[in-house]
Design goal:
The protein is built from 14 helices and twelve strands. The chain is of the alpha/beta class. Helix 12 links the parallel strand 9 and strand 10.
Length: 367
C-alpha cells in the first residue's frame, strides 16, 4: 500500500475511534430522544451566512449566557432587557430568545433568531423575518413529553372527579358530589389530538398506552404513528370532533388555527366530551367556550392557556362550570432546562461550523 494511502487510513481509523466528549453524548442523546429534525441543507448554503461575532440574548436565554461565553469564547454575547434590544441589535448577527420589529429594523445584519420555547407566532408574524429570509429555530418537540403528562393529568382529573373533590377537601367536607355517570374510566374512550406534531404525538402515545382510541388531525398529511388509528386533515375536524370523548389542542397558533374552536365546533362535540387546550389560547373563541360550558354543550374544559392571557380575575371563564385552569405551566417540570441548553449549544456549534441546523421553523407555515 502506498505510504500516503496508509497514513490516510491510519488517520481515518484514529478519527473514528477518537473518544466522544460527554457534551456531545448528551447532545446526541437529546436529538435521538426527541426525534429532532435536521435541515436538508447546511446553513452555510444560506445567502449572507457567516460565523456570528455578536449575539444579543434576552428572556430565559440570559440565564445561560455564562455557559455560552465559556463554550464559545470567539462570540460576543450581549444580554439585553426588553427596552435595550433594539439598541443592542444594531451590530448583531443573531438574536437568542427575543424577536420584534424594532430589533430587526435596527439589526440589519441579523441572520438567525433562536428560541428556547416552541411557540414562535409572535416572531414569524414580524414582516422582516420573512422578507429577509431570516433563519428561525426553536424547541420543537422538547416539551412534548412534559406537556403530554399535563394533558393526561387533566384527563384523569375529570374522569375521577378530582376537580370536584379537591374543593370539597378545602371545605373539610366528606361528601359525594359527583353526579351519576361522572366517574369514568378512560379505557375505550376516544381522544382527538388536534395537531399531531411533537407534542401531539406524545399525547397520543400516552393515551394509547391507557388503552384509549386515538384519532388526530394534522396539516402536513395523513401519516402518523401506529398508535393513532386515524389521521385526518384540518377540514375533517368537525366530523372527528363528533366522535371524541376528549378533544386536545396541541396545534400551533397560525392564521389557519386562530379561533377554530368556536361555537360551531363546540356544537359538534358530545355533551359528555371534554376540551383540553395546552397550545395557545387564541385557537379558541373564549366567549363561545364559556357559552358551551354554561349551556352544557360540552362536559368541561381543561385549560393551560387562555385568551386573553393572563386571564383577568373578573373573567367569566373562572366561574364557568367544570373548568380546570392552570396558568400556562404545562411545560414546567423538575427536569430543569438541560435539554434547552443542550439544543441551544448544539445549534450554535452547527451554525458556526456551517452545518445542518436542528429544529428549523417553517416561517411560511408559522411553526
Amino acid at each position: 500500500m502506498p505510504t500516503a494511502a496508509r497514513w490516510l487510513m491510519i488517520f481515518a481509523l484514529a478519527w473514528a475511534c477518537a473518544p466522544v466528549s460527554a457534551a456531545q453524548k448528551v447532545d446526541d442523546a437529546i436529538i435521538e430522544r426527541y426525534h429532532l429534525e435536521q435541515a436538508e441543507k447546511p446553513v452555510s448554503d444560506r445567502a449572507g451566512w457567516r460565523k456570528p461575532k455578536r449575539i444579543v440574548v434576552g428572556g430565559f436565554v440570559s440565564q445561560m449566557i455564562g455557559d455560552l461565553r465559556k463554550d464559545f469564547p470567539d462570540v460576543e454575547f450581549v444580554a439585553a432587557t426588553p427596552g435595550q434590544i433594539a439598541q443592542q441589535a444594531a451590530n448583531a448577527d443573531a438574536l437568542f430568545g427575543v424577536c420584534n420589529a424594532e430589533a430587526l429594523a435596527a439589526g440589519k445584519s441579523i441572520q438567525w433568531i433562536h428560541f428556547v420555547t416552541a411557540g414562535v407566532e409572535n416572531c414569524v408574524s414580524v414582516p422582516g423575518v420573512r422578507e429577509r429570509n431570516i433563519l428561525v429555530t426553536n424547541m420543537q418537540r422538547i416539551g412534548g413529553p412534559i406537556i403530554a403528562e399535563h394533558v393526561m393529568a387533566m384527563t384523569l382529573a375529570f374522569t375521577r372527579g378530582l376537580d370536584l373533590y379537591i374543593p370539597q377537601q378545602a371545605k373539610h367536607e366528606w361528601k359525594r358530589v359527583t353526579p351519576p355517570g361522572r366517574m369514568a374510566v378512560v379505557k375505550g374512550k376516544t381522544m382527538l389530538v388536534v395537531g399531531l406534531g411533537g407534542i401531539g404525538s406524545e399525547v397520543a402515545k400516552r393515551a394509547h398506552a391507557m388503552e384509549m382510541k386515538v384519532i388526530a388531525t394534522r396539516a402536513s398529511g395523513r401519516s402518523g404513528p401506529d398508535y393513532v388509528s386515524y389521521v385526518g386533515l384540518p377540514d375533517e375536524l368537525p366530523k372527528l370532533a363528533a366522535e371524541a370523548d376528549f378533544v386536545v389542542n396541541t396545534a400551533p397558533l397560525t392564521p389557519e388555527t386562530k379561533g377554530i374552536f368556536n361555537a360551531a365546533f363546540f356544537s359538534k362535540m358530545k355533551p359528555s366530551a371534554y376540551f383540553i387546550n395546552v397550545a395557545r389560547g387564541g385557537s379558541a373563541d373564549t366567549d363561545a367556550l364559556v357559552a358551551a360550558l354554561k349551556n352544557k354543550q360540552i362536559a368541561g374544559a381543561g385549560l393551560d392557556v387562555t385568551d386573553p392571557e393572563p386571564l383577568p380575575s373578573t373573567h367569566p371563564l373562572w366561574d364557568a362550570p367544570n373548568v380546570i385552569i392552570t396558568p400556562h405551566v404545562a411545560n414546567d417540570s423538575d427536569l430543569g432546562f438541560d435539554a434547552q441548553i443542550a439544543v441551544t449549544r448544539e445549534n450554535l456549534r452547527r451554525y458556526i461550523a456551517g452545518e445542518r441546523m436542528l429544529s428549523v421553523v417553517d416561517v411560511a407555515r408559522g411553526y
